[in-house]
Amino acid sequence: MSLEFLNQRLSVPSRQLGEPGPDAGQIDALLNAAIHVPDHGRLSPWRLRLIRGEARRQFGERLAQIHVRQDPGVSDKALLKDRERYLFAPLIVVVIAHVLDGHKIPPQEQILSAGCVAYNLLLGAQALGFGAQWLTGWAAYDSAVAELLGLEAGERVIGFIHIGTPIEPASEHPRAALADVLAEWTP
Ligand SMILES: Cc1cc2nc3c(=O)[nH]c(=O)nc-3n(C[C@H](O)[C@H](O)[C@H](O)COP(=O)(O)O)c2cc1C
Known about the structure:
Layout: H1 4-7, E1 17-18, H2 24-34, E2 46-52, H3 54-70, H4 76-84, E3 91-98, H5 107-127, E4 131-135, H6 143-148, E5 155-166, H7 178-181
Antiparallel strand pairs: 1-5, 2-3, 3-5, 4-5
Helix pairs in contact: 2-5, 3-4
The structure holds flavin mononucleotide.
């Protein structure tokens, strides 16, 4: 495997994603590859939910309802964003950290393992020729949305991974300079 693939990894904004999405065989292969992650203690501390088809519209509608209930003064623009956000990409994979509290494997390590699943989905989608973007937004941190998604106690949303075909290419942006983040440890 060449490092070039990692250097070329690029998110495609969800608004630039459209049909077709991965077919059933590609979804199966992608999800299986995505859970091939480092996992201290073999806890499988992640769960996945697919949102696709008509469920995308209903999910956005329910988010808007929750948003209004929590903030009756919420702007129309914000509500439109809630309603539209899940309509662009044909497939959204919700990556959930299933955290065992009080386990000898610290929660941070379980959450990071789930983060690896999310990142693998980005890499895997791109490897299959699709575009993808990892989004969170308020919905990822809201208890009413957690209930809507059917999350159990100890579970939290790591991200919504939007996957589809790029309808316009994503543009690259400046990346961090290694020298700014690298130091040699000296005793
Ligand atoms: C945990 C996480 C949450 C993110 N949530 C959002 C988000 O809600 N909205 C957004 O515009 N970008 C979000 N991003 C950033 C995009 O996924 C993406 O990284 C960004 O568009 C830059 O593209 P790049 O991945 O090619 O650098 C998030 C990234 C991470 C890692």
